[in-house]
Amino acid sequence: MNFPGASPFDLGDPAAYAAWRRGKLATAPASLAELTVEVKDPRALSAAERAALVACCARANMAIYAGGNLSDDKEIPRMLGLQLGLRTLDSNYLADEDGISALSVAGAGEGARREFIPYTDRAINWHTDGYYNPPERTVRGVILHCVESAETGGENQLLDPELAYLLLRDENPEFIRALSEPDVMTIPARVEGTDAAVVARPDQAGPVFSVDDRGFLHMRYTARTRSIVWKDDAVTRAALACLEGILKRGTPWTCRGRLEPGMGLVCNNVLHDRTAFSDSPTRRRLIYRARFYERISG
Ligand SMILES: [Fe+2]
What is the pLDDT of residues 73-99, one digit of tens each? Predict the structure, then answer.
């Protein structure tokens, strides 16, 4: 929701926050079933299907589409995104040339990918996508399309970042202040190979919570502890411990589910994790992932 003038995310405006909080809690979904939209063909939504997906995203920042019987078309995330206002793909260097990543377990011949956890069958801890990107490449929209699910595992938990914000602010507004500092979270430079002169990505410092020029909340976060440097002060440490507790214990609004062939997630880059999984010769997990600079819009 957009709030011209008063922002619920302004720590100096508790009344705007209280009004927004009431509405958020009154409409927060308790399960993914409430956010699941049956679609015939995600490449060509009907007006009603599109409106339903946009409404779910306005309410909870995410929606699941299901029911389309086609699954292996790499154009799906791009064509679906265009219908939801997602126009500009973020192309990381492991994405294919079309800017869409085919996430599956990397084989022995795929050196660079094997270093990155999305291309393994291991569990992935809570995060938002692209947390290591510079501000001009902020990932606001994400689509995951499932071509094939694993033999076992590969489930996701999902949490609307606005609810994480709400729980933290209810606990202590100072936690929000600390996590909004522009240098609270730094991703150290990544160096290619052994040559320190070849920097694949420079240091990225930034806030966890920020509000964009249209008033929308954005969250940048990873629960991983390697390759990340947090600001070292008492309030930041307490805020992070509180957030970790929220994610680990679960909340009434933490959604759980597994994408099956033909299903997908469209979201405003919500918090998510992934359980470990096992492929079999006939069931190799394959997810097409597209990241966009825009949010989902009607
Ligand atoms: Fe992710």
Answer: 999 999 999 999 999 999 876 667 788
pLDDT score at 1:
47
Q: How far is the CA of 15 from the centre of ligand 1 (A)?
A: 34
Q: How far is the CA of 18 from the centre of ligand 1 (A)?
A: 31
- How far does residue 125's CA lie from ligand 1's centre (Å)? 9
Dist. CA 117 → ligand 1 center (Å): 10
Instruction: Please name the residue that has the structure tokens 């947390």.
Output: 131
Q: What is the Å distance from ligand 1's center to 147 Cα?
A: 17
DSSP 175: H
Cα(146)–Cα(154) distance, rounded to whole angstroms? 11
Q: Which two tokens stand for residue 136?
A: 């001009």
Please, which residues have CB within 8 angstroms of residue 71's CB and are 6 or more apart in sequence? 145, 146, 147, 148, 261, 262
N-to-C CA span, the chain: 12
